[in-house]
Design goal:
Mean pLDDT of chain B: 86
CATH superfamily of the largest domain in chain B: Response regulator
Radius of gyration of chain A: 19 Å
Number of domains of chain B: 2
CATH topology of the largest domain in chain B: Rossmann fold
Strand content of chain B: 15-25%
Number of domains of chain A: 1
Shape of chain B: globular
Distance between the termini of chain B: 104 Å
Structural class of chain A: mainly alpha
Strand order of the largest sheet of chain B: 7-6-8-9-10-11-12-13
Number of helices of chain B: 13
Low-confidence stretches of chain A: none
Order of helices and strands of chain A: HHHHEEHHHHHHH
CATH architecture of the largest domain in chain B: 3-Layer(aba) Sandwich
Strand content of chain A: under 5%
Structural class of chain B: alpha/beta
Largest sheet of chain B: 8 strands, mixed
Oligomer: heterodimer
Low-confidence stretches of chain B: 3-7, 28-44
Helix content of chain B: 40-55%
């Protein structure tokens, strides 16, 4: 029984990481109605930028990360104006497929630039021996992820609930035409959303890279479970996304120790299907309502 | 004229038209057959076989250039390309320049099979694919089509056992490496309990079965096993299982990057085995040595097909020095395999697909890649070239060879390993 408890606790740590990745996706979805399949690639690119500053320019890690966050914001803005904004009236499906294309393009660029010598050992942000709970060691990285997740969740919740920009983004996502008629500057808000999303992604990637090892496909195996978690928890809800991802993390790790990895994938996706059938909007998501 | 007479006439005219079209088609086919390149015999200006002309030899490779296996696999074809370029600059093989084309399969067997279809009628041979799953998918179609498949990096037994026409491998199978490593470990550190962890690099169950059988034959015990997909995001659950089992030995057959992640997780979770971590040659890659947690270095022993570090004065050592491939064992293997291939081609006259197979089967203690591989021995019934496995240990960011162990069914049981200084 203690092995399952240990696995569950490690699953919580893993789920918090998935949830942190999910925040960026949920934020973009809430603001634009677009599920960003390039989230992983954009995040990894940010981590490579930070790594390049450390390795090639010898900058201290905190400085390199800050610079990478600024550059990531710029990449997000460019992405919005070059890839997303043109012909935005083509519909959400068209725009979503563009994110898939962007993901493949970024992956190819990273493979070309950094692929030959990948993977790279990314420097740890925190060091130490961690704490042991029920025979599982929660590493300093796990604890940092938990802290950052809580902070970002609180910030995003407050942003969308209490700030003018956040409320404007929600309005733009729900009723884009009406919002524009009311004078909301959709381009400026869209660029801001993408900038914030890329910043969030880079934060996740630099937290993840020390244990996952930095390579162009670093985020691939995380993105699949992240999407499962946020669909389960609610694509429009930050707490829901975190809850769904933590559930996925726990079930994944407990199933691995009870059975094997293949069974964990089966269980998770069965759970997702059941969740979508019983509660399509997710555990904490709000159902879509249309005034007739 | 009656309706039936009209119909008979029309039918007759249609019949003659069909016959005329068929005759023209047959003539066209015969003309095409006559003008197709001939195979064998050295006719048609030096075109001795498919992929061989008077001045070129076309070689192909299907390789994992993207996806989770790319970091470990791509260096082998990069190094092979360097070797072929070197040979070309020196005049080529039998005055023919080697043209080497590599197609990406992303470690996807379906894509590898598609690549084989591309090469089947254009390449003289397929060389050095990396990855057991892809090798296992393509060896049969290649053998049936008579296309030599030379020296893939493969751990699946069925590819080479029993010997298939045209399919030759240098590297020992993972299942036999696991047995050899455990015998070495039991000799060196005493018998003990074993936990095995594998990525599904081909038929992984045989690695688990061999670990179990060898552990029990040696007086030890087999506790459990775990399978993790290549690119697994989190090895913590498996590390927790190992921590609870507290084995003497952990045997792993994992890709290079996954080995690094797995060992880092064992260190983080305080789950290192009491004695040693033993790994197959799948772990002996630049992607591992550049990223692993050096805190575990003293406990790691890995199987290697090549003597490491490579002598810098060796031809491959000189070729790779100064490049990012210099210390990558996968690149060294790729260069060695390419060296063996050009060696075989130079010994085969006329250069035909059947001829190169016969050449390789005739090798007994052939020093086909000096300083890289031990001498190679093949036969009509044995298409696996190496008879020994080096045991290497990571020291900081390089591998050092510490022992050489006999490899193979009978020898492995009777002969001990020898220390390498």
């Amino acid at each position: 029984m203690s092995l399952f408890l240990s696995a569950a606790i490690s699953g919580v740590a893993l789920g918090l990481l998935y949830g942190l990745i999910g925040f960026a996706i949920v934020m973009l979805y809430k603001s634009t109605g677009v599920a960003n399949f390039a989230q992983g690639s954009l995040a990894t690119l940010g981590a490579f930028v930070a790594f390049t500053f450390v390795r090639d320019l010898g900058l201290p890690l905190p400085v390199a990360i800050l610079l990478a966050l600024v550059i990531s914001a710029g990449i997000g803005i460019v992405t919005f104006f070059v890839v997303m904004r043109p012909r935005a009236e083509a519909g959400n499906l068209n725009v979503t497929v563009r994110t898939l294309g962007l993901s493949l393009l970024l992956l190819a660029l990273m493979e070309w630039q950094w692929g030959p010598q990948a993977p790279y050992r990314f420097p740890s942000i925190v060091e130490g021996s961690g704490i042991t709970v029920a025979n599982v060691v929660l590493t300093p990285q796990n604890l940092l992820v938990a802290g950052v997740s809580a902070a970002i969740a609180a910030l995003l919740w407050a942003f969308f609930r209490y700030t003018k920009a956040g409320l404007s983004l929600r309005a733009l996502a729900e009723q884009p035409e009406t919002a524009r008629l009311l004078g909301l500057r959709s381009s400026r808000l869209g660029a801001m959303t993408w900038a914030i999303s890329c910043i969030l992604g880079t934060i996740v990637a630099v937290l993840l890279a020390p244990s996952a090892f930095l390579l162009p496909t670093m985020m691939d195996s995380y993105i699949m479970f992240t999407f499962t978690g946020i669909v389960l928890g609610g694509l429009t809800s930050f707490p829901g996304a975190m809850l769904g991802c933590v559930i996925v993390g726990i079930i994944s790790n407990v199933t691995i120790v009870a059975f094997n990895f293949e069974m964990s994938v089966v269980v998770i996706f069965v759970l997702m299907l059941i969740g979508m059938l019983l509660k399509p909007q997710g555990i904490l998501g709000k159902p879509d309502a249309v005034r007739l | 004229m009656s309706w039936t007479t009209q119909m008979s006439g029309a039918r007759a005219r249609r019949t003659w038209r069909v016959a005329a079209v068929a005759a023209v088609a047959a003539a066209a086919l015969a003309l095409a057959a006559c003008s197709a390149p001939t195979t064998g015999g050295g006719e048609d200006g030096g075109a001795t076989d498919v992929g061989v002309t008077a001045d070129t030899i076309q070689l192909g490779a299907t390789q994992s250039l993207s996806g989770p296996g790319a970091a470990s696999c791509a260096p082998s074809t990069d190094a092979a390309a360097l070797w072929f370029n070197k040979v070309n600059q020196a005049g080529g093989v039998q005055d023919r320049q080697i043209k080497f084309q590599v197609l990406d399969d992303g470690y996807d067997p379906a894509r590898a099979i598609a690549n084989v279809r591309t090469f089947q009628n254009s390449a003289f041979a397929l060389v050095g694919a990396c990855g057991s799953a892809t090798a296992a998918a393509i060896y049969k179609p290649l053998s049936e089509a008579g296309v030599p498949f030379l020296f893939p990096t493969n751990g699946v037994a069925e590819v080479v056992k029993p010997a298939s026409p045209g399919i030759f491998q240098i590297l020992p199978l993972y299942e036999d490496q696991a047995s050899t490593l455990l015998r070495y470990a039991f000799e060196d550190q005493g018998k003990g309990s074993v936990f095995t962890v594998v990525n599904p690099l081909g038929a992984y169950q045989s690695v688990i079965d061999n670990s179990k059988a060898t552990a029990e034959e040696g007086g030890g015990t087999f506790i459990n096993s775990a399978v993790a997909q290549l690119g697994t995001p989190d090895y913590t659950p498996i590390a927790l299982q190992i921590k609870e089992a507290n084995p003497d030995y952990v045997v792993m057959s994992l890709g290079g990057s996954d080995t690094g992640k797995f060992i880092a997780t064992l260190v983080a979770q305080d789950a290192l085995p009491k004695k040693l971590i033993l790994g197959t040659s799948a772990s002996v890659a630049g992607s591992f040595i550049n990223s692993y947690d050096t805190a575990a270095a003293d406990k790691i022993r890995l199987g290697s097909a090549v003597l490491l570090p490579l002598d810098p004065n060796n031809e491959c050592g000189q070729l790779l020095s100064g490049s990012t491939l210099a210390n990558d064992p996968i690149a060294i293997i790729g260069c060695g395999e390419a060296q063996a291939i050009t060696h075989a081609m130079s010994q085969t006259t006329p250069l035909t697909r059947e001829g190169i197979s016969a050449t390789i089967e005739s090798w007994t203690e052939e020093d086909a890649a000096p300083g890289v591989f031990a001498p190679l021995t093949f036969s009509a019934t044995d298409h696996l070239g190496l008879a020994s496995l080096y045991i290497v240990q990571p020291k900081e960011r390089a591998f050092t060879t510490i022992a050489q162990c006999p490899y193979g069914d009978e020898k492995a049981i009777d002969e001990p390993c020898t220390a390498v200084k």
